[in-house]
Input
Amino acid sequence: MKSVALVLVALVGCTDSSVEITSPTSSEVVVGHGFVELKVTVLDSTVTSLVVDVDRTRAPFEVFPPSDLGSCTMCEFVARLPAYEITPGTRVIRVEARGPSGGLGSDDVTIEVDGSPDVRRIAPASILDLRGVATLTLAYEVFARDPVAISIAPDGIQGIGIAAAMCRGGCRLDHVWSIGSPGWHDVIVTAISDGAQARLRESLNFVEAVRVASISVSNVFDFGSLDLEVFLFEDATNKFLGCAGQDSGLGAADENLKTYQVDADLLSPSGALLELSSLPTTALRFEVWENDDPDECLTGPNTSGGDTLVGASPALTLAQWKTQHTPLSFGRVSTFEAVVGLRLAR
Output
């Protein structure tokens, strides 16, 4: 793709249907940093150059043709203008195509240039990636046309900040945030530039939940690989409370005599994350089963379908499970570690 540096010039002549600005559209809001990209279509002409007029104010720009300027049955060009050179507000942009004999036609578009800073979260890419965490790192990127002051405030407590920075190409801030308790937590990122302000507020709901962290079994056999499932019961009533299976993080645990570090959420029978607030305070028992059927852990062990009990844990209260920090062994389960911690509600 060839890049040709041009200069904005004042235009004359009237709009012609052979030249059309296809993007941006009229009244579209364009952020005032980075570049404004004009997509221009020229029909049935021999094009030697493009010129652009922004409220009859000249400024440098670049044009990117799909091939060399020349004969066009239908040619599409992109003209890139530095947005930070354009004064915020309502602006009229006109593009003219010129040929060997002069102007071929022109088109114009009215846009709104927004001079406010722009704040984006770049890590994690999805907020759903924040799973079993007590400490997490959030990364944000800020763009601004003028020097900008940036601050990050989790739960209303001032975190890191930048007093004044040039961020036309983007400034990145990383913040390590310790989550101390379940419930809703807010992170507010503020950027102020030349009196204009941008604020990004994210509200995250963390709950206490149970997950399987490690597991290994011995003397368990099946055709091919193992399909392990973990079930949780109220010990006194034998009430089924939830499970972790192949689809919730145990898929990798498929061999005898091998300890697997896993991250397997326990799910309620409805398929939702099993939250501690929904569990009884009485003694609870984990059971590990080898499953012969497709993953059906949400319905409980299938004793009539060939599922095999591998081992049942001691019955401990919820408070005791929360302080059980060493792996257990029971039955043919060589290693079993259940962890109670904060998870992002989902």
